[in-house]
Specification:
single chain, 186 residues, 6 strands, alpha/beta, Rossmann fold
Amino acid sequence: MSWDPLPQKPTDTDISLKVIVVGDAAVGKTSLTGRFVTGAFSHAYKATIGTDIFRKLVKVDGRRVGILIYDTGGQERFRNLVERYFMGAIGALLVYDVTNRESFVNLPTWSRQVDRHASGAMKIICGNKVDLANQRSVTTDEGTGMGLQLGGTFLETSAKDGSNVEEAFTKIAQFGLDRVRGRATF
């Protein structure tokens, strides 16, 4: 990818929040993170080895919120390695590819890992790659149902065209800010 993994200084914030991005390999976790951080999409695929860390500063309710994003590798061999990065996360994006049913079926496993290692984190279930509508194998209704089943919020996203990418991360930032203020609900 062409962006600097740590482009902003954490000292520029009123509050810093940790977000983890999890899901099977090749579902678009790094592309979602890159789209959010830089506003751009890269067509080049490069598997994440372990975990990459990114930062972005956003404004929420007039406050500067630093989002520290842990983009995790989705390959089975990295699952135990990346679990240590879950601790302290305020939110988790559980990403699946709407054209890959297996990545959808595996969401409960990812959810259990989040529950085990980042208890109380807000979960957003992201059905990614909705720009590939003609290749879709998971319906919006199924995604909504999975969100309910896993106790999370459901969004369909596209790292390629930017659909709901900002919203996914901003929902977690709002949740984190509300939690700091003592009024978080999801």
